[in-house]
Amino acid sequence: MSTAQSELADPPQDGISAIQFAPSHNLLLVSSWNTEVRMYDVVQNAKRAQYNHQAAALDCCWGTDQNRCFSGGVDKCVKTYDFASETESVLGNHDKAVKAVCWQKELGCCVSGSWDKQLRVWDLRQTACVNTTLLPDKVTIFSLLFHHIVVGTASRHVWIYDVRNLSEPEQKAESSLKFQTRCIRCYPDGTGYALSSIEGRVAMEYFDPDAASQAKKYAFKCHRAQDEKGIDTVYPVNALAFHPTYGTFATGGCDGKVIMWDGQNKKRLQAPWSYPTSIASLAFNPTGAMLAVASSYTFEEGEKDAPPDQIFFRSVNESDVRPRAKQAQ
């Protein structure tokens, strides 16, 4: 990229629900409320493929490589698309909308989470559901890394499973944040996860139950604005994305801001980057040299006129994402 930031030429025309880069290419997958799942070549700034659900597409993810993707939507379907053959197929259905999908490459399975309170595992080799797990409430978000899957549900439940054994969660917890969970992302080193809420906060959590690990967890405020009377406006934190090399992370809020953080050293790394409207989703490319930002109104203030849905590509400098050690006291 010759400039610090560029814009996708032909974004979806309705709310963007998720964006994700391919594992090793600058190809971007985008799902949206207009039923579409699109794939873009970011270098050429061009749409390369598209398929549709029968209703809003709520999430999307890549398979093992850039040749296949998965998606779920309000039509209750879990779909897969083969880019080489340009064919789509339905893996199966939930009883209600499919809110989240992810791929577990070691098992060769797609995992889906739904408002029907279920996780389902789909094996491509059998083209069938091979496992169904019941959750305490509807699934709103999850994150999978290595063998851990962290599932956030309505009513602020956070259940953690080993994806190889979904019969019983390894941990059952309630979110340490007092309000609805908006996003969960596992740390790149697999030691824990970050969780954001509608109340302008992010919690940093650890899997290991021992006292030393649990002593490291904390939460912090972000995405807030103060008026001249000193009154805070608090914005939901919709999106989290970890840098693939440094493990620092970006947050995106309904204030239209993106902020980089060093979670280990509890520091903000740069001044907020501003966008036209709510940040719906964030994704680093495989090298971490680029951050994709979905600027798309998320209806936190109800129906109103809003800027058009856009996706920006921001070149990331090392100074934006490199951790900064704590100063000696």
UniProtKB/TrEMBL annotation:
Protein name: Uncharacterized protein
Pfam annotation, one family: WD40
WD repeat windows: 91-132, 237-271
PROSITE patterns: WD_REPEATS_1, WD_REPEATS_2, WD_REPEATS_REGION
Matching SUPFAM superfamilies: WD40 repeat-like (SSF50978)
Keywords: Repeat, WD repeat
Domain of life from the UniProt record: Eukaryota
